[in-house]
Amino acid sequence: MSWLRTFCYVLLFMACAVPTSAFFPESEEIARQISKQSAALSSFQAILTFPDDPELSCNLWVKGSAWRQEMIETRDGKARVLQAALGTDKNLEAVFPEQTNMPLPWLMVWKFSLARWFALGTNPDVTSFQFLVDRPCVVVGARDGDMDSAQCWVDNERHIPVRGIWRTDAGMWYDLIWDECSQVGNFWLPHRIWFTVNHHAPLQMRIRWNGVNIPLQDSLFSTVAFMRQFAGKGMSASSSSLFSQLESFPLVVSIRP
């Protein structure tokens, strides 16, 4: 019976020797899953608030690749637009007050395709299985314990990005986490964002979804209508230290030349 025992050992060894990559979906499959989820979410309106400054908020409208973002400050019951911008994907089309850059909406980064993460330096040939708190994730671009490499974390069951880490050419280190996901309609959507730059204390944002796959008027994203709305208006001064930080936000988009 020694041959049977040996045969069983060989079978056990072969089972244990299956390459780790066999348990991970290919990058192409992950990309397809992300793209499918993103394409199905064709439009939305959301309001982001900042626990560190309850009087500051960010209104965001997205329709396809077009977006509109407005930073609002409410003091003494009066709301004022501090900044506003129109963009398409990662490009800025118009901005108020007149300046050359504007923070890219955090939820537009959440909608990045996997190809965009590859462009940010994520290695498609490296994958690992990790947990973000209690959520199982396939991590593209890094192995367990590697917090330096560019990487995209995808929830293994919901097929949505939940974390992105990357460095800029200037050496800035970014870490974005989208968590507290729950279903809104047929979509798993994040309700909180954590953003960390160069390992400093993270900025926390809460998300309120006001509408998903809703009809949004084209005029909301019209550059002509936008310029007409803000023509002749000056910049409103803000006493918010958080807004001052956001003005120097490193994740910015610029007017296309």
Strand and helix layout:
Elements: H1 2-16, H2 27-40, E1 43-50, E2 53-63, E3 66-75, E4 78-88, E5 91-96, E6 101-103, H3 106-110, H4 114-119, E7 127-132, E8 135-140, E9 151-155, E10 161-167, E11 173-179, E12 182-184, E13 187-189, E14 192-197, E15 203-212, H5 223-230, H6 241-247, E16 252-254
Antiparallel strand pairs: 1-2, 1-15, 2-3, 3-4, 4-5, 6-16, 7-8, 8-9, 9-10, 10-11, 11-14, 12-13, 14-15
How many H/I helices?
6
Please give the CATH architecture: Clam
Strand element count: 16
| SS strand fraction | 35-45%
Let me know the largest β-sheet: 12 strands, antiparallel
CATH class assignment: Mainly Beta
* Overall geometry: globular
- Estimate percent helicity: 10-25%
Distance between the termini: 78 Å
SSE string, helix = H, strand = E? Answer: HHEEEEEEHHEEEEEEEEEHHE
Structural class: alpha+beta
CATH topology: outer membrane lipoprotein receptor (LolB), chain A
Alpha carbon gyration radius: 22 Å
- Give the averaged pLDDT, no decimals: 84
Query: Order of strands across the biggest sheet?
Result: 5-4-3-2-1-15-14-11-10-9-8-7
Given as residue ranges, the uncertain stretches (5+ residues, pLDDT < 50) are 1-22
Number of domains: 1
